[in-house]
Amino acid sequence: MLDVLPQMPEDSILGLSSACRSDPSPNKIDLTVGIYMNEEGVCPVFDAVRLAQQSLVAEETTKAYMAPAGDAAFNQGLQRLVLGSGSAALADARVSSIQTPGGCGALRIGAEIINAAAPGARVWVSDPTWPVHIPLLGSVGLRFETYRYYEPVSHGVNFDGMVEDLGRAGRGDVVLLHGCCHNPCGADLTLEQWSVIADMAERQGFMPFVDIAYQGLGDGLEQDVAGLRLLVERLPEVIIAASCSKNMGLYRERTGAALFVSSSAENARALLSQAQVAARRIYSMPPAHGALLAGRVLADAELKTNWEDELQAMCWRINGLRTSLVSKLEQNTDRDFGFIEREKGMFSFLGLTRAEAIALREKHSIYMLESSRINVAGVNGANIDYLAEAVGAVLRG
Ligand code: PMP
């Protein structure tokens, strides 16, 4: 029976990263996969997470299942982190959340809830968006419409195009927004632009679904959720998919949450019960380890400060790399790369053609996506000159 199934092609991003690992060149650079890497090219464990882990391992008395909604300290800590401790929606108990296996699990549970409320609803996604959004939401039965977002010539957001396209979104539609650090393009909305989207949602009745996978890696923990919080203040319903993969370095522990901001406390409770039933259909209970660690970090003032400081240092390093990359690239080419400094988070398109991205890989062992999306955190003091010189060489042809 099973032999009818053909071999599937390798995931394009993971395939490039594994090709880089087997490349013998001593100069090779992996700018493909979205993980934070430090100056030594290592994806580190946060100090606060390591400390929380030591106490958890010493104190843990059971491996019995988690509650279906996950760890209470984690859910409470994450709600405050994302929405702010002064959030009116939190004070009114209009928010519920379920711990999920990573941000992917949160996106999936969010999609299940949307589809339960409005089967086959239309979800508007940015052009481009993170490619995994499509199978994650689409396999539930949701349908897609695209709104214009990144403009390759100006290397920025085509906000007029976005507004024009979203002008066609109405009641019963969902608009998927990247909370910060847009993946793949790094171009984010300004607060004024978030406000325009909130106006449109109020007027037209569509519901925002905000994917926040990089809080703290753009400008800072508070700044990166200012747009999202504005939506929550103004609108009766918002779904949020949050991830602790990047900002707590918990990637493999699969730690995230789906948050439901609703029009009443009663409906928030109903949505949580629906989310638990949806999770039961797919994987039953969430994994424990990562959320127990994150819950401890968020609940302990000393660990939290330690974590915030380390995260802020990562954020500054990425922004410093963006500045250095612009000046090194401009020393080696006659192009304006200033847009890299205006973009946020781990990703930017370099604005190269597919052929140029392939030439960088084949001639210089520099691995980036063929769209020329790079993981800025893969750049470091030891490889930045080689990278900029190679881009210069490829652009000269
Ligand atoms: N959304 C976006 C835009 C992402 O880039 C990622 C991670 N690459 C996620 C969600 C989910 O990440 P995870 O499931 O690892 O938490």
Automatic annotation (TrEMBL):
This is Aromatic amino acid aminotransferase. Keywords: Aminotransferase, Pyridoxal phosphate, Transferase. One of its GO terms (molecular function) is pyridoxal phosphate binding. Residues 27-391 form the Aminotransferase class I/classII large domain. Homodimer. Pfam families: Aminotran_1_2 (PF00155). The lineage of its organism: Bacteria, Pseudomonadati, Pseudomonadota, Gammaproteobacteria, Cellvibrionales. GO terms for biological process: L-phenylalanine biosynthetic process from chorismate via phenylpyruvate. Gene3D superfamilies: Aspartate Aminotransferase, domain 1, Type I PLP-dependent aspartate aminotransferase-like (Major domain). Belongs to the class-I pyridoxal-phosphate-dependent aminotransferase family. One of its GO terms (cellular component) is cytosol. It comes from the Bacteria.
